[in-house]
Amino acid sequence: MNLKGAKAEFDDSSACKRFPSIILGSSPQVELYDETACCTELSRVLATQNCEGFHPDSIGAKLVQESPSETWPSLSPALPSVTPSSVKEDSYETLSSQPVALETTEKSNSSVTVEESSIKVEPESPLNAAPIELFLDRSINCISGLSKRHCRQLENCGFHTLRKLLHHFPRTYADLQNARTAIDDGQYLICIGTILSSRGIRANYSFSFLEVVVGCEIAENQSTSEHAVDDIDSKGKKTIYLHLKKFFRGTRFTYQPFLKSLEGKYKEGEIVCVSGKVRTMRTKDHFEMREYNIDALEDQKDSSFHAKERPYPIYPSKGGLNPNFLRDIIARVLQALPVNIDPIPKDVTQDFGLLSLHDAYIGIHRPKNIDEADLARKRLIFDEFFYLQVGRLYQMLEGLGTKIEKDGLLDRYRKPELNAIFMEEWSSLTKKFLKALPYSLTSSQLSAVSEIIWDLKRPIPMNRLLQGDVGCGKTVVAFLACMEVLGSGYQAAFMVPTELLAIQHYHHLLNLLENMEEVEQKPSVALLTGSTPTKQSRIIREGLQTGNISLVIGTHSLIAENVEFSALRIAVVDEQHRFGVIQRGRFNSKLYYTSLGSRMEVGMDGSSKGDVHMGSRMEAGMDGSSKDDVHMAPHVLAMSATPIPRTLALALYGDMSLTQITDLPPGRIPVETFIIEGTDDGFENVYKMMLDELEIGGKVYLVYPVIEQSEQLPQLRAASPELEVISRRFQGYSCGLLHGRMKSDEKEEALGRFRSGETRILLSTQVIEIGVDVPDASMMVVMNAERFGIAQLHQLRGRVGRGQRKSKCLLLASTASSLNRLKVLEKSSDGFYLANVDLLLRGPGDLLGKKQSGHLPEFPIARLEIDGNILQEAHLAALKILGASHDLEQFMALKAELSMRQPLCLLGD
Ligand SMILES: Nc1ncnc2c1ncn2[C@@H]1O[C@H](COP(=O)(O)OP(=O)(O)OP(=O)(O)O)[C@@H](O)[C@H]1O
């Protein structure tokens, strides 16, 4: 396969459009391996941030003195200068000469120790004899010399195969020469040193301790300036003394023989590697360690281990297994690792500048320097993404019959602009609906609809994510997609996270349908939420089952077991990240079975409605659907205004394609944002601005973090008690109240009054955050704005500036210190950029909340928010591979690897 040749004709940039989430709004792409890009981006953000809980050092990491919880270092290291071949050359040689850390840890789970002499990986061991492609999936039993007990322990912790062991990646690396900065109390330190003394001391009749003193030579830190840190050679060295202490309580531990045997374990002059948290002692340069690991270096004369300044891998423990034990076992597997285990062809890895798999494993576990670890990481992340991409495309190709169809599909992925159905080919219902809209679609709305309709005509269920900034007009795109399906006689379901939004969409759609002309029979639309009265809800369910209702808008109620559809063809899930994976999955599979069953019923009962449906479906079959159409799961269109990692995760695991709306409807005037400190003066200013706005006919949202005042958090302003205060203050203008504890109809009434202008000020909680659309609302004031995340504030701000009025958003921060963090909102109105800032500042856990982050798929080392570029490359590589061999028959090793990693039956939802 000549991939180099293929590359020439291959338009990378257009294929990259398949993953627009990789480009973060209009902000520059995050270049993973370019120090400047990532660091500048962050420092720019951080320059204006008060980053609570965020440690810039961990981003610019030089991998020194990291605490175990710190993040992966590879966010910033400069572009590696190592080449794959340079890694390969001496990886074996260094390994064999390299001392293997022995398990001598005091605090360790002492049942797990490795008897050094008992484990050997001989050149001709069964490990080496394994067929190359099966090597990684061999059982750990094949590690010769590993006792049954160890095997059991490893297996109990999930390490069944060599692959599992090799995929137990270091959590971080420590630089053995890392003590270049001042050593602080509580800091995690790792040092090579010499044992100076070892004493077992009896303190009283029932208390004793072991004290091992290790002297470590480190570079003296004379200055804190960054330059001085780099200029290590020009500085002196000094010795620090680590006092490793282990305490024993109980009379049996105070006997001299016991204490002697303890101290005898550590020989004076022995070279050891010590790691743990230090506490400063009174004497200068003396530090105490109570929780520590101590590894004797195997060959005392061999100083190459630290002389070479190799990063020292620090492994996470797993299931109670000691990290050092794991490191030792992994080192042994590495020694036996065949060079040619890579299932990905060499020309592909070379094309993408990747290490071979062998070198990547060596590089991640035993890097010579941090650049090598980073290159290794890149390769391993690439694999995580690559197999997902290959699996997904492979499955899609399998669903197609002829080579031409398959080539066509791949081609469309390469040239996404072809994945569109032009307006002339839309169903007549869709065209009429479009005509009835009070505005024209923007160009990206138009291409989004075209892409979706293209998908709707495929014989494969669509799983597409529609992303766009707040207020860009996603709803109408989804409505048009529904119309296309209804036009062929099928049904559509539109699920939203709140009742308020369901009601809003329902009325919005009814209005639009009312304007439609020349349609004999308009689609019947229903609203189904938790508040729908039982009787009405039963009628709606019957209507859905018989097919009398063609479109239903609702909340979670739509996925209730008793809701069955006659012929559901599309499910729209708005603000999809607010629904758990399980919920969405249930929705999907439930609809698959019920729709299949009920379609048959319709066919059998022969009712006239059923006939219409069947007739239309035949028509649909003619315009592109396969004859097996009836077995299809419904198409799923998910929508989101926040590009959170979970979204990207779904884009990968949920087998989703992405469509992005990149422009806003014309005439929108950017919302002016002000960050104001909530002092008395600050509030006076805000009230004055509100009054000015009301006098010129504007409408104002006041957003509060809580409904009622709380004793625990008295500083938080509450919506309910403030109603009176605000009403008094703005006497000529009526005020309304809206919060989540109100009944559904009360909420709708409050919003309705605000929409109609009866109330001009709406005091609300964050219930309005999602999707509320009152186009002439022109001012928003957010109280205690520091309580909200950046992305959330952007969503809230998106409730204003949706019409032609110039709008303002005032963010009131309770403290001066929180003003800085909010400043980014003053500067940017790009939701994709802001969501990314939020991610970097708060991390996915905080951003997603417990419910969602718990469902994040496991990417052992990829960080979805920053590794997008690698995903992009993986996608290109997958296209190349499958372009060369649709069924992967030319790449048997790769195919075998794919089935190991990505059982095809598990692909998709
Ligand atoms: N092409 C357009 N031209 C003018 N107005 C438009 C256009 N498309 C949508 N709108 C209007 O813009 C407003 C916002 O649209 P919509 O509610 O669909 O946005 P959204 O993307 O769902 O936003 P959010 O994420 O805030 O829910 C609506 O009032 C809608 O009628």
Supply database-style keywords:
single chain; 909 residues; alpha/beta; seven-stranded mixed sheet; seven-stranded parallel sheet; 15% strand; binds adenosine-5'-triphosphate
Overview of this protein structure:
α15 (370-398) crosses α31. The two termini are 33 Å apart. It is built from 32 helices and 22 strands. Helix content is 41%, strand content 15%. The relative contact order is 0.11. Strands 6-7-4-3-2-5-8 form a 7-stranded mixed sheet. Strands 12-13-11-14-15-10-16 form a 7-stranded parallel sheet, with helices on both faces. A 6-stranded parallel sheet has the order 17-22-21-18-20-19, with helices on both faces. It is an alpha/beta fold and 909 residues long. The model is unreliable at 1-131, 222-234, 300-308, 589-630, 649-654, 844-859 and 903-909 (pLDDT under 50). The longest helix has 29 residues, at 370-398. Bound molecules: adenosine-5'-triphosphate.
Short description:
This protein is an alpha/beta fold.
